[in-house]
Design the sequence.
């Protein structure tokens, strides 16, 4: 079997290489370059990543190739992110990067020459009724299936996750025992360029600044000013510049460029139990065909270790689903993905974009 490994320079994908070699495979290694760009942003950690990748390749005597997907990333992921922010939404570039770049453009360019593509993601795959499903990782704290919740059935059936059945501590231990060059390296912030730069600078570069009011939601009182609703996200606490906090962003009016806040940890305006998921995407298949709604599910509305319990309903015949959470949810941010799992949080079925 011919395997391509996506190698990042981090410890997880290095151990993925080790695991495959220990099973007798001779995978080919690929580093995806998404780097400096015309706008003057540079990413210094990239050179270090690449050095680590070369060291891992040398250690196992495997070929390493750099695949430049910089333009594709900017055309697809950055454009998506900016458009969402412009509409007042909170995008998730990591989710889109996996779908469009790591398993999209890479597959078209290189991956199609291989039987399987392996990564260091904390996730698993499992077979049920003759189909391959995306399974959660053994280490619940490291589980990354929420970042993979927009991939499709072809992608999932081709993927290998050699570290998905290991705890992070075991991964580190393997790396230390094998004296891998990056054994002690800190965890990366993801491939996404957006995770590595100052987010506000990046947004400012594309959308500029426009002063607007910060208003207390309950009273309508103007408390201060902001430099553009696009710098603020629902659920945000830090960076509001208001005294006497805590203050939380609870709403935004993009037409009038107003950011609404509410005071205190227990302000009810911060919480909700109902989440609307639009354009719902099933990774492998619709598991609820013929079932009576609501169905019991687990879900996440952001990257947290906890899976939350709730009930899912379909809104008519459309691809809109409504989630009713058992526990109050803090800061439901439209634009983020609501990721749905089975009731035992073993299988990730898919995701939809949160909207009001
Ligand atoms: N620049 C890159 N080139 C190739 N593959 C990458 C790159 N960045 C990330 N990946 C792949 O995606 C996986 C998940 O990346 P991410 O940065 O989200 O997580 P991570 O758990 O910190 O992984 P790692 O420790 O391997 O960096 C990596 O393990 C690797 O397989």
Sequence:
């Amino acid at each position: 079997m011919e395997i391509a490994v996506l190698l990042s320079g981090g410890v997880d994908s290095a151990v993925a290489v080790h695991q495959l070699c220990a099973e007798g495979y001779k995978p080919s290694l690929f580093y995806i370059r998404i780097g400096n760009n015309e706008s003057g942003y540079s990413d210094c950690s990239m050179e270090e990543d690449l050095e680590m990748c070369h060291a891992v390749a040398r250690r196992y005597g495997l070929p390493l190739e750099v695949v430049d997907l910089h333009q594709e990333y900017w055309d697809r992921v950055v454009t998506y992110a900016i458009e969402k922010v412009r509409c007042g939404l909170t995008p998730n570039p990591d989710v889109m990067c996996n779908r469009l770049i790591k398993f999209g453009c890479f597959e078209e360019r290189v991956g199609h020459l291989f039987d399987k593509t392996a990564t260091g993601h904390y996730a698993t795959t499992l077979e049920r009724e003759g189909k391959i499903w995306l399974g959660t990782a053994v280490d619940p704290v490291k589980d990354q299936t929420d970042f993979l919740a927009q991939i499709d059935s072809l992608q999932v059936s081709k993927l290998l996750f050699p570290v998905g059945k290991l705890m992070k501590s075991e991964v580190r231990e393997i790396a230390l025992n094998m004296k891998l060059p990056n054994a002690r390296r800190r965890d990366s912030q993801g491939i996404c360029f957006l995770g590595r730069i100052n987010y506000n600078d990046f947004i400012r570069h594309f959308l500029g600044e426009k002063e607007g009011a910060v208003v207390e939601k309950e009273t309508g009182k103007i408390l201060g000013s902001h430099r553009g609703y696009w710098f603020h996200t629902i659920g945000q606490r830090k960076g509001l510049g208001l005294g006497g906090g805590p203050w939380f962003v609870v709403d935004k009016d993009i037409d009038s460029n107003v950011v609404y806040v509410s005071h205190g940890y227990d302000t009810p305006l911060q919480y909700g139990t109902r989440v609307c998921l639009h354009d719902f995407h099933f990774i492998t298949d619709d598991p609820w065909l013929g079932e009576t709604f609501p169905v019991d599910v687990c879900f996440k509305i952001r990257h947290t270790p906890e899976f939350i319990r709730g009930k899912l309903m379909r809104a008519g015949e459309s691809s809109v689903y409504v989630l009713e959470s058992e526990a109050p949810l803090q800061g439901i941010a439209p634009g983020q993905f609501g990721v749905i799992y089975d009731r035992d949080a073993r299988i990730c079925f898919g995701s939809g974009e949160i909207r009001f």
Observations:
- Residues 70-86 form the longest helix (17 residues).
- The first strand starts at residue 3 and ends at 6.
